[in-house]
Each structure stands twice: as structure tokens, then as C-alpha cells.
């Protein structure tokens, strides 16, 4: 589904603050796979997400999604194929717009937006139906500005919005890192439910060893802008937290 | 009474300006000073068209379209060439000053003897109500003034409804979201740059329509008529927000219109009491300054008095549900 070939990206080249964020990264993700990306700060996880989403065009390399070469596509054009949930729970929604209006936006992801009435009765019913599934009682508040909701609620809604139209690829960018543990667990549960139900090809970045070990059917560990370790589902089940820590130390020792 | 009618009509006409400022400043956060140029552009294009015997409706439409083009150019300067939004507006405003002089061919064009929307409306109502006018609440009002006020009310109502409907369409919602959270709009496949260009075109189209109607109402177009108008618009928007105090879309639109009318009435009263017209812009600027600064000042003061008050919700800290 997703094929990344020899991606290179250097920020601020030729200056003292030069950062080689990606150095020859290769990654292939099969359709329907749920891949966890684990890495230390500065290992290039976020840069990887941004390269896939199109926030910048990489210096070198190729991005292929669903057999289409999208390396030079701008972000908004790729968005038709990619659903994304950010780390900051406030990044995924427009605070002044109501819940319903936010979903109206999501219902046109990657499609043209014209002058037709956006808040139709059918959309309202469908949103109420799906939002009810969150068990947050938000279906009664579809007309309240989304900015009045809590971070957890907004992140849950962002997840629904990102998957409203089935994306070819779902990017979860440390999307529970800014939440308290209880809310984070709730969001993880909703994420897994969405991913399983629609068999979404998913790339999830996380800091959490627990999430890395429990979730997904493949685990890749990033270090210095490339994939350092790659575990399949079978290999992953044998791993423990201490194994992961030891691998990180090993990778660092190789520098 | 004549004073009241005049203030109401001009206030309503200039509410198109405040609606335009509402779009550029409140939705996109861009203090778009192109407004100073486009209000004159709308006036000058319409004036020249009327002088050439073009149908006043078409002339008004052309003036509006010219404003929209100017606004989209500001948007392109800002998004395509990455020029600071304020500077983009200043560039366009400066360029438009020459454009307006070119269009008009002189610095002032009288319209009294030509057919305009104002003369059409006045003529029709004079035939309907008779030459001497009507009694309204015991006051004698000329038919022409009633006609103009009603005409302006109808136009502003239509524009307001159209705007309201627009902001509930897919494109309109995407535009509000663009000013709110551009990152999210991009992630949902919206073209942020294009939305800003369309938004500034819409904003300046509204403002040019205001200029076009103002020229037809007062019977002349003048190259100086746009100076400081962005501040007028801002003042109106701020008054409107203070009066309606609500953030729903409908109330914001209504607030901008009411704000403009109230502001115009205040100005008319102040001038009546002997305020020197030359001081008007200074006073407006001071007013806008206070309106921008005071709310934050009072909020800080209140927080200092009640230290346990909850912090603003919009912070990227761990938040529970």
C-alpha cells in the first residue's frame, strides 16, 4: 500500500542547526497492516509522518501510495487518500465551528467543496449515529462549538473525522501523548475499533513501550532517520519492555 | 429626521464594509487594508459606468467585481508570493490609489445628473408617494429619503442572507475553518491558499459594493473617500460584537450591520454637537485602540482579583475528557 524508498531530508542544511532528519529511510507497508513506529526523541518519527502526509517535499527519495507516485503532491491533494490525527488534540478540529460543521468538513476530505448546503439532515443523522458510538453523549451537542469540548473528546471526534471517508492510509501521530492515561486508553480503544472495523492500513507513531508491544501487527523502531529494527507480529509477541530498551541502547552504542 | 434617515442609510451602506472587514479580520485574522482602496474602486468604477449610460445595476455589479478582483490580488500577493498579509494589503491599497485616479480621470466625479440606483429609486417612489413626501411619526420626510432607506435595507438584507447561506455551504465552512485551524483544513484536503484568496475576494467585493452604493447615494465618487475606512469597519465590527455578544454566525453578521448603523448614528450625533469633522479619524482610531486593548486589560485585572479562576481552555496541555 505504502512504499517509501531511500528518503532523505535535511533541515537547515549548511547551518549550525543542521539536522539530518531522514537518512535513506526504506519502508514498505502491506495493505491492511497496522504498523507501530517507536523511536526516541529526534529519531525522525514525526519527520517520517510529515513526509508521508506531504508537509514537506523530501530532498531525495520516493513516496508511493496505492501504486501512485505522490512524492511531489502537495499536502491537501494527498489528503484525499490519507486520514491524519495529530498529537495536539486541538490540531484536528476547528474550534469555532460546531461538531456538525466539523464533520461536514471531514465529509468532503479530498473532494471538491462547492456552494451546496453542507449541513443536510442526512449528514446530521449519520453524524449523530456514529458519534453515539463514542459513548460520550456528544450526539446531543452537535451544534455546540467544538472548541468548548475537552481534549479527549476532540481527539475522539478527530479520529471519527479522519476515518469518515475510508482513507487508504491512516496516520496516528502520537495521538494520545497529550492526554491523561485514562483518556489515552479510551482513545486507543476507539482507534483499534475503527482500524479493525474498516481494515484500515495504519501507521501509528508512539513513545509508549506498552502501546508498541500491545498494539498493531508490526513494530518498527527508528533511529537516526532510518528503520533500525523491524519486527513482524510473531517476532513482536516474544518481546518485552526490557528487550526494547536494550535495543535502543544497542542502536545508540553503534553511533 | 433627515439627519436620522441619512445616518441610517449611510450606516447600512457602510455595513457592507463592516461585513467585509468581518470576513477578512475576524474570520481570517488579516487586517486587510486593501479595503481603503476597494471602497473607492467600487465607487469609481460604478461612477464611470453610470456616466457612460450603463444600466446602474450592471454598473454596481462591475464595481463589486472590480473590488473582488483587487481582493484576490491581495490574496495572491500574500499566499503565492509569501508577502506579509498587512504589507500585501498596503501594496494593493497604494496601487489602487493610482488605479482609481485612472478610472475616474479626475479626483472627483459628480453623479447628480446621471441615472444611478439612487435616482431610479427616488424617481419611482416620488411617483408613488407624491412630491411633498410623507408624514412619519409626525415628522415630514421626503419620499426620496424613504425610498433610499428601503432600497438599502433590502440590499443589505439580501447580501446578509446570501452571506449566511454561503457560510453554511461546504466552501463557506472550509473558509471559516481556514481562519480557525489551517493545519486541519490541509489535513482534510482543503486548499488553504485558495481559500484565503477567495475569502479576500469576497471581503473586498462586499466592501466595493458598499463603496459603489455610497457613491450613488451621496451623488459623487471621490478618490479620498476610502481613507481610514478599514478602521471604520473595525470599529463597527467591535461595536456589533459588544452589542450582540454572541459568536454564532447569524449573530455575528447581524452584529456587524447593527454596529455599523450605531457607529454612524454616534458620529452623526457627535458632529451635530459640534465635533470638528477633521478630528473624526483620530477619535475613531483611539476608539478602536481602546476596544482592542481594554477587554484584555479587564480580563487580566479580574484574574488578578480572583486567582483561582480557571485558565483559558485553549492550551496544549494534557486534558482529560
Plain-language structure description:
The complex is a heterodimer of chains A (255) and B (321). In chain A, a hairpin with a 2-residue loop joins strand 4 and strand 5 (68-69). Helices cover 34% and strands 24% of the residues of chain A. Chain A has nine helices and ten strands. With 321 residues, chain B is mainly alpha-helical. Chain B has a domain at 2-223. Chain B has helices spanning 2-27, 34-51, 56-79, 85-104, 117-129, 143-166, 170-180, 182-187, 192-218, 229-244, 249-272, 280-305; strands spanning 108-110, 134-136, 139-141, 220-222. The termini of chain B are far apart.
Task: Give the strand content of chain B.
Answer: under 5%
What is the number of E strands of chain B?
4
Secondary-structure element pattern of chain A, one letter each? EEEHEEHEHHHEHEHEEHH
Shape of chain B: globular
Low-confidence stretches of chain B: 308-321
How much helicity do the residues of chain A have? 25-40%
Mean pLDDT of chain B: 88
Strand content of chain A: 15-25%
Radius of gyration of chain B: 21 Å
* Number of helical elements of chain A: 9
Helix content of chain B: over 70%
State mean pLDDT of chain A (0 to 100 scale): 92
List keywords for this structure.
heterodimer, A: 255 residues, alpha/beta, four-stranded antiparallel sheet, 10 strands, B: 321 residues, two-stranded antiparallel sheet, two-stranded antiparallel ribbon, 12 helices, 4 strands, globular, disordered C terminus
Task: Please give a quick description of this structure.
Chain A has 255 residues and is of the alpha/beta class. Chain A contains nine helices and ten strands. With 321 residues, chain B is mainly alpha-helical.
Helix-strand layout with pairing:
The complex is a heterodimer of chains A (255) and B (321).
Chain A: E1 2-11, E2 19-29, E3 34-39, H1 45-53, E4 60-65, E5 68-69, H2 75-78, E6 82-85, H3 99-106, H4 121-132, H5 151-162, E7 169-173, H6 181-198, E8 202-206, H7 209-214, E9 218-223, E10 226-232, H8 233-237, H9 241-253
Parallel strand pairs in A: 3-8, 3-9, 6-7, 7-8
Antiparallel strand pairs in A: 1-2, 1-4, 4-5, 9-10
Chain B: H1 2-27, H2 34-51, H3 56-79, H4 85-104, E1 108-110, H5 117-129, E2 134-136, E3 139-141, H6 143-166, H7 170-180, H8 182-187, H9 192-218, E4 220-222, H10 229-244, H11 249-272, H12 280-305
Antiparallel strand pairs in B: 1-4, 2-3
Helix pairs in contact in B: 1-6, 1-9, 1-10, 1-11, 2-3, 2-4, 2-9, 3-4, 3-9, 5-6, 6-11, 7-9, 10-11, 10-12
Amino acid at each position: 500500500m505504502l512504499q517509501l524508498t531511500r528518503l532523505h531530508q535535511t533541515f537547515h542544511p549548511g547551518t549550525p542547526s543542521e539536522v539530518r532528519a531522514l537518512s535513506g529511510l526504506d519502508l514498505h507497508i502491506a495493505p491492511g497492516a497496522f504498523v507501530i513506529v517507536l523511536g526516541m526523541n529526534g529519531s525522525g518519527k514525526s519527520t517520517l509522518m510529515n513526509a508521508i502526509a506531504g508537509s514537506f517535499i523530501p530532498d531525495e527519495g520516493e513516496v508511493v501510495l496505492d501504486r501512485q507516485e505522490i512524492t511531489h503532491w502537495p499536502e491537501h491533494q494527498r489528503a484525499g487518500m490519507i486520514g491524519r490525527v495529530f498529537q495536539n488534540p486541538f490540531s484536528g478540529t476547528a474550534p469555532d465551528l460546531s461538531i456538525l460543521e466539523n464533520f461536514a468538513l471531514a465529509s468532503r476530505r479530498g473532494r471538491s467543496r462547492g456552494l451546496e448546503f453542507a449541513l443536510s439532515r442526512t449528514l446530521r443523522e449519520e453524524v449523530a449515529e456514529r458519534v453515539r458510538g463514542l459513548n460520550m453523549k456528544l450526539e446531543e451537542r452537535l451544534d455546540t462549538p467544538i472548541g468548548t469540548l475537552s481534549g479527549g473528546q476532540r481527539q475522539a471526534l478527530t479520529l471519527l473525522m479522519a476515518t469518515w471517508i475510508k482513507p487508504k492510509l491512516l496516520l496516528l501521530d502520537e495521538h494520545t501523548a497529550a492526554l491523561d492515561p485514562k483518556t489515552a486508553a479510551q482513545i486507543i480503544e476507539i482507534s483499534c475499533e475503527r482500524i479493525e472495523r474498516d481494515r484500515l492500513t495504519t501507521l501509528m507513531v508512539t513513545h509508549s513501550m506498552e502501546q508498541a508491544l500491545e498494539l498493531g501487527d508490526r513494530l518498527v523502531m527508528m533511529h537516526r532517520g532510518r528503520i533500525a529494527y523491524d519486527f513482524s507480529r510473531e517476532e513482536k509477541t516474544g518481546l518485552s519492555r526490557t528487550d526494547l530498551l536494550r535495543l535502543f541502547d544497542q542502536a545508540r552504542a553503534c553511533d | 429626521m433627515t439627519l436620522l434617515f441619512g445616518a441610517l442609510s449611510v450606516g447600512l451602506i457602510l455595513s457592507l464594509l463592516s461585513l467585509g472587514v468581518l470576513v477578512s479580520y475576524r474570520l481570517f485574522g488579516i487586517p486587510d487594508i486593501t479595503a481603503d482602496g476597494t471602497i473607492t474602486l467600487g465607487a469609481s468604477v460604478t461612477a464611470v459606468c453610470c456616466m457612460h449610460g450603463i444600466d446602474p445595476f450592471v454598473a454596481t455589479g462591475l464595481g463589486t467585481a472590480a473590488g473582488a478582483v483587487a481582493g484576490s490580488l491581495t490574496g495572491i500577493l500574500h499566499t503565492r508570493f509569501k508577502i506579509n498579509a498587512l504589507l500585501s494589503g498596503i501594496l494593493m491599497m497604494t496601487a489602487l490609489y493610482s488605479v482609481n485616479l485612472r478610472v475616474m480621470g479626475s479626483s472627483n466625479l459628480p453623479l447628480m445628473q446621471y441615472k444611478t440606483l439612487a435616482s431610479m429609486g427616488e424617481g419611482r417612489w416620488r411617483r408613488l408617494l407624491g412630491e411633498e413626501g410623507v408624514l412619519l411619526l409626525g415628522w415630514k420626510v421626503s419620499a426620496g429619503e424613504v425610498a433610499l432607506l428601503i432600497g438599502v435595507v433590502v440590499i443589505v438584507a439580501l447580501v446578509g442572507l446570501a452571506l449566511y447561506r454561503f457560510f453554511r455551504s461546504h466552501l463557506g465552512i472550509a473558509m471559516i475553518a481556514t481562519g480557525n485551524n489551517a493545519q486541519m483544513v490541509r489535513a482534510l484536503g482543503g486548499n488553504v491558499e485558495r481559500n484565503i484568496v477567495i475569502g479576500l475576494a469576497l471581503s473586498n467585493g462586499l466592501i466595493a459594493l458598499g463603496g459603489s452604493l455610497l457613491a450613488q447615494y451621496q451623488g459623487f465618487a471621490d478618490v479620498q473617500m476610502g481613507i481610514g475606512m478599514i478602521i471604520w469597519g473595525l470599529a463597527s465590527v467591535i461595536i456589533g460584537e459588544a452589542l450582540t455578544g454572541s459568536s454564532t454566525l447569524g449573530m455575528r453578521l447581524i452584529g456587524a450591520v447593527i454596529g455599523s448603523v450605531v457607529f454612524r448614528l454616534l458620529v452623526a450625533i457627535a458632529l451635530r454637537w459640534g465635533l470638528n469633522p477633521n478630528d473624526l479619524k483620530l477619535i475613531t482610531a483611539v476608539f478602536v485602540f481602546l476596544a482592542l486593548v481594554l477587554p484584555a486589560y479587564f480580563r487580566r485585572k479580574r484574574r488578578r482579583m480572583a486567582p483561582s479562576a480557571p485558565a483559558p481552555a485553549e492550551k496544549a496541555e494534557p486534558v482529560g475528557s
